[in-house]
Amino acid sequence: MSEFSSESASPSISAEPDGRPEAIPADAVVIFTSEGVPRQGGLAAADAATGGLLGRLAEAGEITGRACECVPLLGPPGFAAGQLLVVGLGTAEQIDAGSLYRAAATAARQLAGRPRGMVAFVAEESWPAAAVEHAVAGAAAGMVGQDLYRKEKKRTPFAATRWLGLPPSTAERIVEHGRLIGEGVNLTRRLVNLAADDMFPEAFAEEAASVAGRLGIEIEIWDKQRLEQERCGALLAVARGSSRPPRLVLLRYRGGKGSGLRDGNPPDLALVGKGVTFDSGGLSLKPADSMMGMKCDMAGAATMLGTIATIAALKLPLDVVAAMGLVENMTGPAAYKVGDVLTARSGITIEVHNTDAEGRLVLADVLDVVRGFEPGFIVDAATLTGACVVALGLDVAGLFTNDQACCDAVATAAAAAGEPVWQLPMFRDYDAQIESDVADIKNVGDGRWGGATTAAKLLERFVGSTPWTHIDIAGPAFAEKPKPWIDGGGTGAMVRTLIELARATSKLQA
């Protein structure tokens, strides 16, 4: 079974560095090629084994190497496998961890359309080991769909996956790390894809406890009574309209430096996730069409659970705290109202101008809790604003910060993982847009403009002087339609970036 979840089995993934692709008795063999690059590596070997067939197909324009192009050959001559799948990587300049992740995921997604025994992937010697880990993770993600409730599944994980062509001295480590990263991505995706009636605050907290128990992570779960004792008035207000009580989950991974959630040693990194398990908009009700994807409004919390689980499974040498604020935003008789003034845990008062701007209220209290641990820096992730999607589109996450070095570390990690991000401004002039006449601040800015930044400006009020970066994942966290490399639904966006951030932070601490 998976270390991360009792709900999903972990297929066999291993390395065979000395295996010859044409001799592997697999259901399918996957090789990769680049656009405009002469036949070399795995493609050249496969071409020779097939008597020049691949070369002839390339000359005929049937194999181009364009990104995510898949060309299947059934019963290829000279191969023991039943199918050879040639997958494009794009131009040589485009090859990085992101393109390898997407290409491997594209191949896995296509082949997982029916049950298969063993599938072999052929890596190239020129690929950096860190990028190969992301390719392995991509293959693990591509074979898993969003069809959790379908009797007949659209995707079936392979019984076994083999990676060929890796250096013998590091092959097993590369594949094992890639497998764990893929499990972290898939854990996040599964939580997001579960229906809101199955994934509500208490259910998420139970899932977190199960993951923590398997991986040896310390955990505290604050129930409604504890949240009231802690004066988490902003989070509690959002939760009032639901029959599902709120939760705050605190996880701590010690990285071998000690034990205990509250041992007095500041963590190197704090991760905070928005966990609105369903967002109706509250009394500022969303249209029905806009509610269809709102089970994904807890993607920030799912991202942080997937991340800290992977950090623990990889046994990275750093100290991490992760916190998730979990609520439903509903319209029950006790629902908070436009015009209400809330007192957050920090003592800051917030005038409510829109009950659909609830995620920032939840995060306000969670950020204040985490600040008390005195972490080296804080990163939060949230499906926070449609305004960020308007600014950057569906595939790019927005970055907002009070500390440029912190933001640069996140951006560098994103580049290493091949996940697109873009920093948006946090000029002081935006602060005036969240000033309130009756409270310290209000929960939305002035009008529609700059909404992603004004939301981030509210969050900034609750981190004090702690270096902090906010990642708005409203676009990339959930795919309304399938892409070549992934089914629709939860994508697991930014899990790989945050793992790279944790790796870089652990090296700084060494």
Structure description:
The chain has 15 helices and 19 strands. By secondary structure, the protein is α/β, with parallel strands linked by helices. The chain has two domains: 171 residues, Leucine Aminopeptidase, subunit E, domain 1 (3-Layer(aba) Sandwich); 316 residues, Aminopeptidase (3-Layer(aba) Sandwich), CATH 3.40.630.10. The model has no long low-confidence stretch (mean pLDDT 94).
Summarize the structure.
The protein is 34% helix and 20% strand. It is an alpha/beta fold. Helix 3 (97-111) packs parallel to helix 4 (129-142) and helix 6 (201-215) runs parallel beside helix 10 (299-314).
Features:
15 helices; elongated; single chain; 19 strands; 2 domains; 510 residues; alpha/beta; Aminopeptidase; 20% strand
Topology:
Blueprint: E1 12-16, E2 28-35, H1 41-49, H2 53-59, E3 70-74, E4 83-91, H3 97-111, E5 118-122, H4 129-142, E6 160-164, H5 171-193, H6 201-215, E7 218-222, H7 224-229, H8 233-239, E8 247-253, E9 269-279, H9 288-291, H10 299-314, E10 320-329, E11 341-343, E12 349-351, H11 359-371, E13 378-382, H12 386-392, E14 397-401, H13 404-417, E15 421-423, E16 441-442, H14 451-460, E17 468-472, E18 478-479, E19 489-490, H15 495-509
Parallel strand pairs: 1-6, 2-4, 2-5, 5-6, 9-10, 9-13, 12-16, 13-17, 14-15
Antiparallel strand pairs: 3-4, 7-8, 8-10, 11-12, 14-17, 18-19
Helix pairs in contact: 3-4, 4-5, 5-10, 6-10, 8-11, 10-15, 11-14, 13-15
